[in-house]
Amino acid sequence: MIRIKQEQCLIQRYNLVKNKNIETCNDDLISDFIMERFSNWLNGYTKAINKVYKRKGALFMDYTRRKELEDDASFSNLIRYIHKNPEHHSIVSDFKKWEHSSYHSILSNAPTLLLRDEVLNWFGNREQFIKFHHQPAD
After folding, report:
1. Which residue of 6, 11, 18, 39 has the lowest C-beta tally within 10 Å?
2. Do residues 80 and 117 both lie within one domain?
3. Residues in the chain with pLDDT < 50?
């Protein structure tokens, strides 16, 4: 889950990267620009992994999709979905055992780039965050 920056920030970045001077947001133009940024990031990540592991080819199977969260319930449910996905797909028997999960970072006190306090406050507190993850999904 990521948060896209505000429209004005996107326009400024677009103008810098594309060496243009647009002043207003064209939804298709900005949408394509955002997806291009992700494509470049994922391609760079793939190249780095391929170099480290002496492999070739694609690392990701499908086109990157995105969906705007339109309500509070969607936000909460997406966080739970992300954390419980390894369990859902039988990678681990308990989602808390997945070592690569942001669930652990959110609950720890170690430094993180995640918006830990914002997420915990969203759920009310640490205990409510944990409790929500143990409720059945909608």
Report:
1. 6
2. yes
3. none
Structure tokens belonging to residue 50: 């391929």
Q: Region of 3 please: left (phi>0), alpha (psi -120 to 50) or beta.
A: beta
- Residue whose structure tokens are 């797909």: 89
Range of the structural domain that residue 104 is part of: 72-133
On whether residue 35 sits in a domain, the answer given is: yes
**Total number of domains in the chain:** 2
- The pLDDT of residue 62 is 74
The per-residue pLDDT for range 59-92, each reduced to its tens digit, is 987 777 788 888 989 999 999 999 999 999 999 9
DSSP SS3 for 69: coil
CA–CA separation, 116 and 106 (whole Å): 5
Q: What is the pLDDT of residue 60?
A: 84
Burial call 55-82: b when 16+ CB within 10 Å, e when fewer: eeeeeeeeeeeeeeeeeeeeebeebbee
Work out the angle at residue 16's Cα, subtended by the Cα atoms of residues 113 and 22, and round it to the nearest 5 degrees.
Answer: 115
Q: What pLDDT was estimated at residue 13?
A: 93
